[in-house]
Amino acid sequence: MAEPSPSMISLEEAQALVRSHVSPLETEIVPLLDAAGRVAAADLMSDMDVSPFAHAAMDGFALHVADIAQASPESPVDLDVIAEVPAGGAFEGTIEPGQCVRIMTGAALPSDADAVVKYEIVDYLGSNGMPGSRVRFTAPAKPRANIREAGEEAKQGEVVVRAGEVIKSAGVGFLAGCGVTEVPTYRAPRVAIISIGSELVPPTERPGIGHIRNSNGYALAACAREAGAVPTMLPIVPDDLDELTRMVKDACSKFDFVVTSGGASNGDFDFIKPVVETLGELYMTTVNMRPGKAQTFGVVDGTPVFGLPGNPAAAYMGFELIIRPALLAMQGYTQLERPHIQARLTADKKKKDPRRLLMRATITRGESGDLEVTPAANQSSGLFGVIQRSNCVAVIPEGVTQVHAGDEIECILLDVDEGVVL
Ligand SMILES: Nc1nc2c(c(=O)[nH]1)N[C@H]1C(S)=C(S)[C@@H](COP(=O)(O)OP(=O)(O)OC[C@H]3O[C@@H](n4cnc5c(N)ncnc54)[C@H](O)[C@@H]3O)O[C@H]1N2
Ligand code: MOO
């Protein structure tokens, strides 16, 4: 059995290495809606109290608590309705003892009212409860009942989103309410995706003998986009040293990060390692993981270049586990890892290869209530469909040769959707 080569580094070392060669990109100002899912690059402050005024939380009657303090079913209190305030309106007058104001949810509270009683518990005494009528109260109200106070959401000048926070959908609404309509954030990295291989044709073509469609380029571009980056798929490059050298050099002058797939191993036509070594610094060639041993990383003219292996699952794992965290760091994120959870294996599994095994797998909640994980039957690194139909990667560490049904193992949730039971 082949031993890992001395230059082979662990997945964590590979992640740290790539991470050490990237930093957050410069900041840019984006319209508020475009800030969803992105990292605030500065503290964001509210330009006013939110809400700016105390207002009714219920449709009902604004009044003085003191007026109905003694109200009960046996000794009800009747008040004169002197005005109606809709949302967007304002009552400028004074509520005298014995009076109340009909008020709608969201309407500004009359300045001298100190509670709102919802209309369901008010007796209209046969009238319509509109101004000019009398309405009956049979219970006291608590001071400030059904009132949303001014400044409850934010105070003027308060930092409402801190630098470094990821702005969620609710945060976009929060910021809108606070008058923040433009947000400083880190620029999204422009990522070049280069698919290497003389056998490759675009997916629009029907491949002839010996040829296949370029599926890696599409998956990697989708992964990059999902990571918040802006991918550009460059033309397919054949297994040709000069052509690849030209393409990588050119891409390094135009993009923030260059990703290639294929030609990363030691075959006669595998050229990404010599290209990176010739053009710049080569820092990594192999990682102790399966699939995905052949992972090349270096820097050319200041631009990180990552050569993923050609096998689809190997390329995908390299992107998701090593490139993705770096792209996130370039956008200012500090949470760089996918969620990890423990689940019980549903079957025994033998492992011949000493590398860390990343099994495409599916987590479900078993009848006992425990999370259970079932590796896909076909673990070939040539398949994308298996990843499409899986919801996690189940990990068997380096060196471990066997795991058993019922063992708890670490699972990395990839691209999770609402269907995943946690
Ligand atoms: N003697 C050895 N041969 C191989 C080893 C090894 O250790 N010793 N490792 C195998 C493993 S594991 C992998 S992974 C591959 C990695 O090699 P390359 O990065 O050079 O990949 P290629 O040879 O270019 O391609 C491998 C495979 O993937 C297909 N491919 C490539 N690009 C695409 C694409 N854009 N879309 C879809 N499929 C693609 C390609 O046609 C090959 O079938 O090396 C093994 N060999
Ligand atoms: O990189 Mo290969 O499995 O390790 O597909």
Descriptors for this entry?
Molybdopterin biosynthesis moea protein, domain 2, 422 residues, molybdopterin molybdotransferase activity, EC 2.10.1.1, binds ligand LQZAQKY5, Molybdenum Cofactor Biosythetic Enzyme, Chain A, 7 helices, six-stranded mixed sheet, 4 domains
Protein architecture, described:
With 422 residues, this protein is of the alpha/beta class. Strands 7-4-6-5-9-8 form a six-stranded mixed β-sheet, with no helix packed on it. The chain is built from seven helices and 28 strands. The model has no long low-confidence stretch (mean pLDDT 95). The protein folds into four domains: 11-26 and 187-330, Molybdenum Cofactor Biosythetic Enzyme, Chain A, CATH 3.40.980.10; 28-51 and 152-186, Molybdopterin biosynthesis moea protein, domain 2; 55-148, Molybdopterin biosynthesis moea protein, domain 3 (Molybdopterin biosynthesis moeA protein, domain 3, Beta Complex); 340-413, MoeA, C-terminal, domain IV (Beta-clip), CATH 2.40.340. It is 18% helix and 29% strand. The relative contact order is 0.13. Ligand LQZAQKY5 binds at residues 195, 197, 199-200, 212, 214-217, 261-265, 267, 270, 291, 293-294, 309-312, 314, 381. Pfam families: MoCF_biosynth (PF00994), MoeA_C (PF03454), MoeA_N (PF03453).
